[in-house]
Write a structure and sequence with these properties.
Layout (H helix, E strand, L loop, with lengths): L1 H15 L8 H8 L3 H11 L4 E7 L2 E6 H18 L6 E5 L4 H12 L3 E5 L5 H11 L3 E4 L2 H8 L10 E4 L13 E3 H14 L3 H8 L5 E6 L9 E5 H14 L7 E3 L7 H14 L2 E4 L6 H8 L3 E4 L1 H16 L3 H19 L5 H15 L6 E4 L6 H10 L3 E7 L4 E5 L12 E2 L4 E5 L7 E6 L6 E2 L3 H7 L6 E9 L5 E6 L4 E2 L5 E2 L1 H9 L4 E7 L6 E7 L1 H10 L7 H5 L2 H16 L7 E6 L19 H7 L1 H8 L4 E9 L5 E12 L1 H9 L1
Parallel strand pairs: 1-11, 3-4, 3-5, 4-8, 5-6, 6-7, 10-11, 12-13, 13-14, 25-26
Antiparallel strand pairs: 1-2, 8-9, 9-19, 14-15, 15-16, 17-18, 18-20, 20-21, 22-23, 24-25, 26-28, 27-28
Helix pairs in contact: 2-10, 3-4, 3-11, 4-5, 4-8, 10-11, 13-19, 14-15, 14-16
Length: 664
């Protein structure tokens, strides 16, 4: 990359000038270009007309150069300054992935502010907690929907002085004095730029690499999320180490699909492009994301496990609509491709007849590197995409550790581990048992400074010698690869002494195209059971093809033929498990697990404590060997309204349960 050449030149110049010796390009970045805004100015000066990002709007891809990027950040930053936003304050952002989010984030950084990203689908009280806890002084909202949440905060939003909104549709009726339109903000910024030329550059120059840039929310599986403080220089240094093991450059393309508040999207969409100038593309909407992805043909891609799972399920749904010959050909290709993969090669005929067309259809034809992270991806799903020719690799990391810090090698079949650490990262296993399994503990130069306003949690997370306790159980295999088993607190044991990982079994269940979510039970119970949710897109298609009538998710999930379908899927998974870890009973839930109900996090991690409490009656009925359980409860809809649900759920035995019951 020509940036590296230039930086190496600067290192040489620094040495000749007698400054401290800088051994790597990463160190040079730390010394001279140690904040996001400084890198932005550098890129805009060196490559002003090169494309930095694209956004699809009204069916047209709009291209923004590095000059455009800088100019918009300057305007927004000076607009915020004209409002009175001060260095050291917190600016929050809420909305979907769009260039204006990234521009606003870097604008805040240019003024020396910390940024706090909030997931766009949060409820008002969740947004209120984050805004209130961080004492955010300003928030940039996407549209009326997000403004409504912020205006509903009441006392928890008392710190907010300004609420900037980008889309002005429906906003005429609002009279809150804190509201500022995007147009007004930009006009203010342009006026200040004309009045004080060079002010923006002076503000950027005041920034330091040790400044806290991002307050990134943790998953919050057991409580309210904590805010990890990430500093510019350490963050950039770690991303430079990432680029050593997974290189990319100015000719590469990335499509931003995962939520921007998530740490890995902050890496891929905000910070990494500033270092390597990979082009970032923003789809028109969540509904068009996969279609827009096909138009771009990205070279690098990061998707969450649930997106990979849903993509595989959607493929199968389309195959179900095809003729018998196409279905048979697809099934053969999957079997042949997976078998060839196990022997360390690709099946050329399967690739020629089936997989090449599928990759093209999905927009995966140009992929050099594809990754999954945030949670474990089932090995069966992993093998499916590898057999298809998708260069998929597993990442592992945490918010506090600047996202990923291990990655699988691309030259070997590896569906079990999370790969090897980055060059700057140390990983050890604390308190290992006889099998070498213990807590994964990590450190590297790019890790977080601590939790915002929470010194006690910081002390609990860090060892006295500065290592981060991840809370995950794992071990190193014979090749030195890190194998992550589950959260330590989630590793369970039955009353008969059988240890098991719920997540491992759940991932095997979710490889089924018909199972959208699974929660495995059995901790301090005599045997294992499961609560299942149907994958509505697939099961509805399956039901339509068989002329099975249904009116809703609840109605479909309760259909006896659907329950029989899922029973078959559970039996398949049981056949691959040891006898002691097989599912003995299961129930199909009347609804999907929903972050609005607190059952999963915004990144779709199961909150097991909430499940145990909310569905206690169902769980007790499962272990009481009852055949049915009556449910009468309240659910929360997407718009915040609540409704009553009454259902009669069938509890189904598996063959393992019937066999063991007879033996008993």
């Amino acid at each position: 990359m020509d940036q590296l050449v230039e930086l190496d030149r600067r290192v040489g110049a620094a040495q000749r000038a007698g400054r401290p010796r800088a051994r790597t390009a990463t160190t040079a970045w730390s010394e001279e270009l140690d904040t996001f805004p400084k890198l932005l100015l550098h890129n805009a000066e060196r490559w002003p007309d090169a494309p930095a990002m694209r956004e699809k709007e009204f069916g047209i891809w709009n291209v923004y150069s590095w000059r455009d990027y800088r100019d918009r950040v300057r305007t927004i930053a000076l607009g915020l300054k004209s409002l009175g936003v001060q260095r050291g304050e917190v600016v929050a952002l809420i909305g979907r992935n769009r260039p204006n989010w990234v521009w606003s984030e870097l604008a805040a950084h240019s003024l020396g502010c910390m940024t706090l990203g909030i997931y766009e689908d949060v409820l008002a009280h969740e947004a209120g907690y984050l805004v209130g806890y961080a004492e955010a002084r300003a928030i940039v909202c996407e549209d009326e929907e997000q403004v409504d949440k912020i205006l509903a905060l009441g006392e928890s939003g008392r710190s907010l002085r300004w609420i900037v909104y980008h889309d002005d549709r429906g906003m005429r009726k609002y009279r809150d004095p804190r509201l500022v339109s995007w147009r007004e903000l930009c006009e203010r910024g342009e006026e200040l730029a004309a009045k004080e030329p060079g002010l923006f550059e002076a503000e950027v120059a005041e920034g330091r690499g040790d400044d806290v840039a991002i307050l990134c929310t943790t998953s919050g599986t057991t409580a309210n999320p904590k805010l990890a403080m990430l500093q510019f220089r350490p963050f950039l240094s770690h991303i430079a180490a990432y680029l050593e093991v997974d290189p990319r450059g100015p000719e590469d393309e990335y499509v931003s699909i995962l939520p921007l508040p998530w740490i890995m999207e902050q890496v891929y969409t905000v910070a990494m492009p500033l270092l390597c100038r990979i082009r970032v593309n923003f789809p028109e909407s969540a509904e068009t994301a996969m279609r827009d992805l096909r138009e771009i043909g990205p070279t690098h891609l990061l998707l969450a496990p649930r997106v990979w799972e849903q993509t595989a399920a959607d493929l199968r749904a389309r195959i179900m609509d095809a003729g018998p010959l196409t279905r048979a050909l697809f099934d053969w290709a999957v079997r042949a491709g997976t078998a060839a993969l196990e022997r360390g090669r690709r099946h050329r005929l399967a690739d020629l007849l089936v997989f090449g067309a599928l990759r093209d259809r999905l927009g995966f034809s140009r992929l050099k590197s594809a990754a999954t992270g945030g949670a474990a991806l089932g090995p069966d799903t992993f093998k499916f995409f590898l057999a298809m020719g998708v260069p998929l690799r597993q990442l592992y990391g945490q918010t506090e550790l600047a996202g990923a810090y291990t990655i699988q090698r691309g030259d070997e079949l590896d569906t079990d581990s999370s790969g090897v650490p980055f060059p700057d990262t140390e990983v050890r296993i604390d308190d290992p048992d006889e099998n070498g399994v213990g807590e994964i503990v990590t450190r590297h130069p790019g890790m977080f400074k601590g939790y915002f306003k929470n010194e006690e949690a910081t002390r609990e997370a860090l060892t006295p010698d500065g290592w981060m306790r991840t809370g995950d159980a794992g071990y190193f295999d014979a090749k030195g690869r890190l194998v992550v088993i589950d959260r330590i607190k989630d590793i369970a044991r039955t009353t008969t002494g059988v240890r098991f990982s719920p997540q491992f079994i759940e991932n095997k269940l979710k490889f089924s195209p018909y199972i959208g979510e699974a929660v495995v039970l059995g901790n301090r119970r005599p045997w294992l059971a499961a609560i299942l949710c149907i994958r509505y897109s697939m099961v509805s298609k399956w039901a339509e093809n068989r002329q099975i009538g249904f009116t809703s998710y609840q109605n479909l999930a309760a259909n006896p033929q659907v329950i029989e379908l899922l029973a078959g899927e559970v039996e398949k998974v049981n056949a691959s498990l040891p006898e002691s870890q097989r599912i003995r009973r299961f129930v199909v839930l009347y609804k999907e697990l929903d972050p609005d109900d607190g059952e999963v996090t915004r990144t779709r991690k199961v909150r097991r404590g909430v499940i145990d409490e909310r569905y206690a009656e169902i769980i007790e009925a499962i272990y009481a060997d009852r055949a049915r359980v009556h449910v009468d409860t309240v659910v929360t809809f997407e718009d915040g309204r609540q409704g009553r649900v009454e259902a009669e759920l069938e509890i189904r035995d598996t063959s393992a349960h019937r066999r063991l019951a007879r033996a008993a």
